């Protein structure tokens, strides 16, 4: 808490409501793009519902658009805060819970984006705080500072599948990812995305390969909940095999992807946590352009 309290006051960008709107628009845009992206093994995409019997692409898109106001408000909360303190953390937490309610109303009670609300909400708040002068690493680290602050109003037990899975398997999940500064975004997703672009992959191919890179390294609670440790190992090894074969831009990589997807569908395994982090990857990748507008 001492380190947080010692941070300087800042006013840069605090009154720029258009910046908050652009941050909110970007958060929705990356959720839409993540939903539309194909082929994503086990996930809802433009081809179908993957391992999800209760979701469609329309559900995902309705959910994403329902969250715009919440993401704008989270960016505004970061802008209006004069210090990184408990008040900001609790404001973002309250907005996050309101966003979940909006999501569930839009989807008829289906959890489509709970993890994405947590990740993108923190990043939007951090981006609002930092204003127009920021880098991906700076935003991720600022989000980590916020995530580590206490929220007196956060439910002790939610009963959510992710919470139960973390307890059963002893993994950190989305909360630990945020508190560590989103390492699977900054050290895995973003480098993979940019390396694939640099070698000439088309943008959708680069994005799917970035997803696979995250899948290969993440202890995904969504996979664990559906397929257990053995299933998680299979998903991680299968994603790595696609990348080792050159990614989905190669014939060998596409064959490996087909094998991975067939195995995941047989186990009903869905890498929802990796999908949330891909959205965060796209958000940080594109955020520099928002401040330039």
Distance between the first and last residues' Cα: 35 Å
Number of distinct helices: 14
Q: In which range does the helix fraction lie?
A: over 70%
Could you say which overall geometry the principal axes of the C-alpha atoms support? globular
The value of Rg in angstroms is: 18 Å
Q: On the 0-100 scale, what is the average pLDDT?
A: 92
Strand % is: under 5%
Given the helix and strand composition, which structural class is it? mainly alpha
Largest sheet: none
Unreliably modeled segments: 1-11
Note the run of SSEs as H and E.
Answer: HHHHHHHHHHHHHH
**Total number of β-strand segments?**
0
Give the number of domains: 1
Oligomer: single chain
Summarize the structure.
The chain has 293 residues and is mainly α. Helices cover 71% and strands 0% of the residues.
């Amino acid at each position: 808490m001492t380190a947080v309290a010692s941070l300087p006051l800042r006013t840069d960008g605090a009154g720029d409501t258009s910046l908050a709107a652009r941050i909110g628009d970007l958060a929705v845009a990356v959720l839409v793009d993540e939903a539309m992206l194909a082929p994503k093994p086990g996930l809802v995409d433009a081809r179908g519902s993957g391992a999800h019997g209760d979701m469609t692409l329309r559900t995902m898109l309705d959910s994403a658009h329902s969250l715009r106001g919440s993401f704008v408000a989270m960016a505004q909360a970061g802008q209006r805060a004069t210090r990184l303190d408990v008040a900001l953390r609790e404001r973002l937490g309250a907005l996050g819970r309101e966003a979940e309610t909006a999501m569930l109303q839009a989807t008829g009670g289906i959890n489509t984006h709970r993890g994405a609300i947590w990740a993108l909400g923190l990043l939007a708040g951090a981006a609002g705080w930092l204003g127009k002068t920021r880098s991906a690493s700076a935003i991720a680290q600022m989000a980590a500072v916020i995530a580590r602050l206490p929220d007196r109003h956060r439910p002790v037990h939610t009963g959510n599948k992710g919470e139960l899975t973390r307890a059963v398997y002893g993994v950190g999940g989305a909360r630990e990812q945020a508190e560590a500064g989103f390492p699977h975004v900054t050290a895995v997703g973003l480098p993979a995305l940019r390396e694939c672009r640099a070698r000439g992959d088309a943008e959708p191919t680069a994005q799917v390969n970035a997803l696979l890179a995250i899948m290969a390294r993440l202890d995904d609670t969504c996979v664990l909940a559906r397929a257990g440790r053995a299933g998680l190992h299979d998903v991680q090894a299968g994603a790595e095999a696609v990348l080792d074969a050159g990614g989905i831009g190669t014939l060998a990589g596409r064959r490996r992807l087909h094998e991975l997807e067939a195995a995941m569908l047989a186990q009903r395994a869905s890498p929802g946590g990796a999908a949330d982090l891909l959205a965060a990857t796209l958000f940080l990748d594109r955020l520099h352009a928002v401040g330039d507008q």
